[in-house]
DNA sequence: TTTTCACTCCCCAGAAATGGTGAGGTATCG
DNA sequence: CGATACCTCACCATTTCTGGGGAGTGAAAA
C-alpha cells in the first residue's frame, strides 16, 4: 500500500523527473510502488497515434497501433465523454469490436482490471492515465478505493510534465478567435446554414463569410467543417 | 494550516455534498478552513455566462457579469491557454483593460493574491477553481507551496460534483456510429472534401453520402458540419 | 500619430454539397 | 429463419459554399 506520506515523496520525485526518460523511469518505479501489473500515461493525437510512457509491452503497443484499436477501445471512447476517472468495469464492452479487442488485449498480458483517469488540456489535448492489474473485482475495488485520489493527482502531474516536454502541442494556440468569429463558428457548429447564421447575428451573409474565412485562416482549416472541428477540439467554442 | 489528514475529511464531506447548496456551504467552510478571503468554483459557458459557487460578494458577481469582465479578465484568458494551476502574479496584467479590471476588483474587496486551477471536461467544458486572499507575496507563496496539491484535488472534486448537477452538460445517449461512418466523420473533421474522403476510403462518393446521411440521422444533425460537431463533442470521433 | 485589427457591406462564377429515392449483397442477433 | 444493421452503387435537380476581388468605419495599440 502507498501511504499518504509516500505521496509527497512520489510527487517530489516526479516533479524533478527530466525528459521522457525521466517520466518513463518514474512510471516504472511508481508501478512497482503500487505493486500492480501496469501503469500507463499516454495521449491521443489527431491521427489516433498514441505517445506516452508506461509499462505495456512493445508488442502490445505495436499491435494496438497497427490494428487501430483506438477506434474501438472502450477505454478511449468511454473516457472521452467523461470527466470522472472510470473503472473499466463501468465501460461498455458489449459490442463485437470491443469483445474482440478485450480478447486480444488479454493475449498480450493486459490485466482484466483497469482504472483510467481522463485528462484534458488546452487545445483539446486529451490524455489518459491508466492503472491496470490482474485480480478479482473485490481486490480491485479495494485498491481503487484506497488509491484513486492519489492516481488523479499523479495523472495530473504526469500531464504537466508531458506538456512541458511537448511544446509542439500548443504552438499556434495564440490565435484566438474574435467574438464575432466565435459567434459564427458556434452557430455553424449548431447546424445553422450560413443564411441562418447571418440572420441570427443580424449581419449580411457577406459579412458572415468574412468571419468564417478569417476564422478558417486563423485555425489553419481547409473548409468550414474543418474550422468548426478545430474550434471545437481546441475548446474555442462550446456547443 | 490544513493538514493532509484534514484533506481526507474535507473530500469525504465534499463527496456527500448535495446540490448547489451543498457545494456552496462546502466552499464556505473550506474557505474558513484555509483562513483566506475567498474561494470560488465557477464555469464559463459559450456565452461567457458564469455559474458556480463561492464567496465573492453578490455585488462583485453582478458587476462582473454586467461589465462582461470575462472578456478581459486575465485569469480567464490566461488559464484558458494553460493546463497548470497559475498564480495570478504570473498572468499578464499589462493591458489597459486588465488594469481597469484589477482596479474595479479591488474596490469590490477581491484580494490582491490569487491562485487559480483550470479544469476541463468533455464538450469543451471549462471551469476555474480559485483561491483569493489579501496578503504579501511571501505569505502567499508559502500558502501556495503548502496547499497547491490539495487545491488541485479539491478543484477536481468540485468539478465532478458540478457535472453531476448539470445533466445538460453530459452528452445525450450516444447512438454509436458504424466504423465506416466513423471513418467518414473523422476525415470530414480533418478537412477533407467529400471527393477526397471517398477517395481515401476507396469507395464511391455516392456510397460516402449514404454514410454521411446515416450518421447525420443518427446524430440528429441538420447538416454535415453539425454532424461532425456532434460526433466530436460526443467523443465519437477524435481529431 | 500611424498602424493594426475587428466589424460591416458588396459582386460574380464555378465547385461542392444536399435531398429524395431505389436496389442488392453480407453479416449478425435473437 | 427472419429481422436488423452494415456496406456498396446510381441519378436528378436544387441549394449552398467557396475563392477571388474591393471598401469604409471606429477603436485600440505601438
TrEMBL record, chains A, B:
Keywords: DNA-binding, Transcription, Transcription regulation. GO terms for biological process: regulation of DNA-templated transcription. GO terms for molecular function: DNA binding. SMART domains: HTH_LUXR. CDD domains: LuxR_C_like. SUPFAM superfamilies: C-terminal effector domain of the bipartite response regulators (SSF46894), Pheromone-binding domain of LuxR-like quorum-sensing transcription factors (SSF75516). InterPro entries: Sig_transdc_resp-reg_C-effctor, TF_LuxR_autoind-bd_dom, TF_LuxR_autoind-bd_dom_sf, Tscrpt_reg_LuxR_C, WH-like_DNA-bd_sf. It holds the Pfam family Autoind_bind. Residues 170-235 form the HTH luxR-type domain. This is LuxR family transcriptional regulator. It comes from Aliishimia ponticola. The lineage of its organism: Bacteria, Pseudomonadati, Pseudomonadota, Alphaproteobacteria, Rhodobacterales.
Amino acid at each position: 500500500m502507498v501511504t499518504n506520506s509516500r505521496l509527497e515523496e512520489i510527487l517530489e520525485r516526479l516533479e524533478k523527473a527530466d525528459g521522457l526518460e525521466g517520466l518513463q523511469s518514474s512510471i516504472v518505479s511508481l508501478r512497482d510502488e503500487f505493486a500492480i501489473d501496469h501503469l500507463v500515461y499516454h495521449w491521443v493525437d489527431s491521427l489516433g497515434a498514441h505517445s506516452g510512457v508506461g509499462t505495456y509491452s512493445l508488442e502490445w503497443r505495436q499491435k494496438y497501433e497497427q490494428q487501430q484499436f483506438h477506434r474501438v477501445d472502450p477505454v478511449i471512447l468511454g473516457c472521452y465523454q467523461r470527466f470522472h476517472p472510470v473503472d473499466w468495469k463501468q465501460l461498455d464492452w458489449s459490442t463485437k469490436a470491443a469483445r474482440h479487442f478485450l480478447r486480444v488485449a488479454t493475449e498480450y498480458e493486459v490485466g482484466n482490471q483497469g482504472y483510467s483517469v481522463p485528462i484534458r488540456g488546452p487545445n483539446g489535448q486529451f490524455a489518459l492515465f491508466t492503472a491496470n492489474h490482474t485480480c478479482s473485482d473485490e481486490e480491485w475495488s479495494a485498491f481503487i478505493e484506497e488509491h484513486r485520489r492519489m492516481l488523479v493527482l499523479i495523472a495530473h502531474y504526469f500531464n504537466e510534465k508531458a506538456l512541458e516536454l511537448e511544446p509542439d502541442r500548443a504552438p499556434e494556440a495564440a490565435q484566438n478567435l474574435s467574438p464575432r468569429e466565435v459567434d459564427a463558428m458556434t452557430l455553424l457548429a449548431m447546424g445553422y446554414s450560413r443564411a441562418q447564421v447571418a440572420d441570427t447575428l443580424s449581419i449580411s451573409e457577406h459579412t458572415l463569410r468574412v468571419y468564417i474565412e478569417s476564422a478558417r485562416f486563423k485555425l489553419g482549416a481547409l473548409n468550414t467543417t474543418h474550422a468548426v472541428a478545430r474550434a471545437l477540439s481546441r475548446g474555442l467554442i462550446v456547443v
